[in-house]
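sanity check this record:
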Amino acid sequence: MLASVRKSMKSLPSHEMPSDDFVAVLRRDAPDAGELLWMKDDRAYCSAIVREGLARIECGVLPESRPRKGVLKVTTGEPYQDKPGQQPSLFVFLAIVEGEHGPYDYKGAAPEAAGPVHDAVVTFASGRKLGLISYEKHSRQIPETEICGADGAVCFPAYYPNR
């Protein structure tokens, strides 16, 4: 998985990925699909969403304020097309949450067109813990839903970005 992401990223030299030891694999699918997230420090992040050899890279900085718990970032939902010229049939979302509250899942039953929720926790030398979450939907039209941590302390609207 990491090898296929690195290959897809060769045309994007401005996004250097660290060694594999510093990359969180949120989802891994065969043959070369999944979501990765890495952080240069406890605020600067980059994410890669890979589908069939195509990598979408996004980098950013988390807010300076550090809530004890809560959502720091939800992406807009990267669209992927099965075939060029067709409407996108898959939208992939990533979220970064302060603290360790996982595992995460949909509140109540998952919507019919929603994919599974995948998560990981990254702990930094400072002791800061961030929950990294990936999930998808297979339609533009999908009922509103929330994603929550197992302890119920953190919930957020799944499909509304906070860029």
About this structure: Residues 33 and 51 are 5 Å apart (CA to CA).
